[in-house]
Amino acid sequence: MMIERLSKGFLTILLWFLLFLPTGVSAQTVHFDSDDRIVFNSNFGGNDDIYLLTRNRLTKLTDDPAADEWPVPDGKGDRIVFTSDRAGSYDIYLLDLKSRAVQRLTSDPRNETCPSWGPGDRQIYYDLEVKRNAWKTMALEISTGISRPLFPDQPFSSTAMAFTHPARDEIFFTGKVFLGWLVAKYNVPSRKYTELTKRGSCRPKVSPDGTKIAYVCHDDDGLGDVFVMNTDGSGKRNMTSGRPDFHDYFPCYSPPGDMIVFSSSPKEKGKNAYELYTLDLKSGEVVRIFEADGNSRFPHWFR
Ligand SMILES: [Ca+2]
Ligand SMILES: [Ca+2]
């Protein structure tokens, strides 16, 4: 009996070791020398999971065989909101960074994706797939659990990937127009929509000081570059014009606003080999900060 118990214990330890060993030894390289943190999604471990980069260190935050994607930290950096199809369709989940407790926030049988935090972290914005490839951005009131459409009388057939301005009552998002998508903003008090780019741009993120927008634009190389502009759409600049053979995607500002993290995948590999890079906005220097076999996307830089 005793021997049986002992061998069971040994087997459990061996199994545990074998299960967790592969993540420890597969080849990833981290060059991230910063006190701030980056959350992102990668499939190098066999399926899409959420990871945290701290100073030259990588931590795995989710461990579910389903796809865990699109992590966005709250204002205090305590919680991560993300989307996962672990319950059959994509739903919105919250992850507490300290306890690692995961809480499910939506349970609609349709897909809910691309969450972010509304002003004061009181709401979570997300995109509900209302029909195949048609998306409506919703606002979930955390205290009540009730979701409502975020945009009234929207002039777009779909809206997606909304992020609030850090100080003003304005929301930046991607809107679907004929044969493509563009970057737009919505002013909440005036209920006014403004198109900030023409077709071929997407994924706006506001700078921490609220003066600039980083976004993806396909105008120059057709593959996607990181552009920045003012919040009224003026002063557009391609920040990755020296990378004509890469898909440059998913930009996000650093907390001081002096750098941008983005994902980049070589043209010959399509959008399937994204790795993480930083761009110094002053010097223009681009540095690869995370290398791994797989696709690393949706980086979000926070404190
Ligand atoms: Ca997973
Ligand atoms: Ca769902």
Describe the fold and architecture.
By secondary structure, the protein is mostly beta strands. The chain has one domain: TolB, C-terminal domain (Neuraminidase, 6 Propeller), CATH 2.120.10.30. Helices cover 8% and strands 49% of the residues. The protein contains one helix and 25 strands. The strands form six sheets. The chain has a five-stranded antiparallel β-sheet with strand order 1-24-23-22-21, with no helix packed on it. A four-stranded antiparallel β-sheet has the order 4-3-2-25, with no helix packed on it. Strand 7 and strand 8 form a beta hairpin. About 3% of the residues have low confidence. The structure holds calcium ion (2 copies). One calcium ion (CA) binds next to loops. One calcium ion binds next to loops.
